[in-house]
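Illustration 12: Glycosyltransferase.
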Amino acid sequence: MEGKIKAELVFIPSPGRGHLPAALEMAKLLVNRDQRLSVTVLLTQSSNDTKNSLGSYSRIRLVNLPQLEPPSNSTLQKHVRNEAAKLRNLVGFVVDIFCTSMIDVAHELGVPAYLFFTSGAATLGLLLHLQGLLDHENQDPTVFKSPNDEIFVPSYGSPFPVKFLPTMLLGDNQMAMDMARRIRRTKGIIVNTFSELEIPAMKFLSQDEKTPPVYPVGPVLHVDSVDDRNPIMKWLDDQPDSSVVFLCFGSNGFFDETQVREIALALENCGHRFLWSLRKPSGEYEDLSEVLPEGFIERTAGIGKVIGWAPQVDILSHRAVGGFVSHCGWNSTLESIWCGVPMAVWPLFGEQSVNAFQLVKDLGVAVEINMEYKKSSANMIVRADEIMNGIRRLMEPVSDIRVKVEALKVKSRMAVGENGSSFESIGRFISHVMVNINA
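Figure caption equivalent — predicted structure in C-alpha cell form:
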C-alpha cells in the first residue's frame, strides 16, 4: 500500500517559457516528496521538450488538450472539465495566473483550486494590494499625476515608483484586477520564492486576512545541464575566475539593429571579458554579422564570445562568470541568486521592471543599467556609455552587491534543504492537499 497512488492533482500551466518549466519542476518536487501523490498536467500546447524533461517520472502524466483556433475560454473549460472528471482521487487543481478561469471548473467538480505563482511574492503582493485598494477603499493608485510619483506597497521595503508598474496594471487594468479577485478565491497560493528573500512581502501576505495561505517553495529551478565538452563551457574553462560578464535577455529578449550595435560598442570598450547570448528577431536579419559592427567578432575574439541559445544555469554556475546583465525575468533572477552572481538590470516588459526595482532598491544585489526601458516604446535606445558604466560597476571585484548576493545564495540553498523554510512549506502544502482526499 505504501507506493499506491492515493491522491491526484491537476496542474494547468500557461505554455510560456517562464511558466511551464517551473510548473513541471514543481510537480516533480511534489511527487518526489510524497509517494501518495500523482500529477496530471493539462497542456494547452503540445511540446516534445516538455515530454523529454520529465524523464522517468511515472507519477506525472501529460495530457494534450485539443488545440483551439481561435482560442475559446469556454471550450477550454469544457475540455479541462472532461479530463479532470476521469480522474479518481482528485484532490485539487493547481492553476497558473493566466489560467485562473479554471478555478470555476475545480469548484464545479467539488475540489479546491490552488494558484502556482511563477513570479515573486512582492509582485503578488503588489497585485493584491492594488486590487484591495480599488475594491475596499475605492482608491486607484495607478491613476497618477506624474511618472515620478511613489506609492506605498507593503510587499516592498522601499516606496514604489509608479513608473515601474507593469502595463497591465495601468489604465484599463480590469483583467489584472479580475485575476486578483479570482486568486483570493483559491485555497492557497504556491509561490516560487523563499521566505528569506522576500521578507516584507511574506509578512504582508501572511497577515492579510483576505489572502489565502501562501506557500513559498523556491527556488524551483529548471536546470537543463549540458556536457562539459560544450564549446561554451570549454571557452569559460579558459577564462580567469569572476572575469566574464554574461548577457542574456530571455527567450524573447531580442533587440533591433541599433540597440545591438550599442551593446556591442559597450562590450568592446568596457574592458571586461564577455559572453553574450544574442537572439535574432524573426524576419529582421538572417545573420548576426549583419547587425554587429564590422569587425566586432574579430576584434573581440580574445575577450568575448557571441552565442545564440545559452545553458543559463550552467553558465551562471561557472567559476569564470562574475556578473549577469539580465532582463530580470523571475526565473533568471532566482537562478542568479542561487549561483551567487550579482546582476545589472535591464528589464524589457511585463513585471520585469518590478523585479528590477526589487533587486536594486530592496535587495541590493544588482546595479542599474536602465530600469525605465520599455521594449514596446518606439525609438527608445540605451546608449553604449550607459551600458558600459553599468557593466563596470557590476564587475567591481569588491562590492556590497557581491556580499549580499553571496549571503542570499547560502540562504536559498538552506531553504530547499531538509528542514529549510521552503522544504517545510512544501510539507505544509501537501498536508493541506491530503485533507481533501475524503472531503
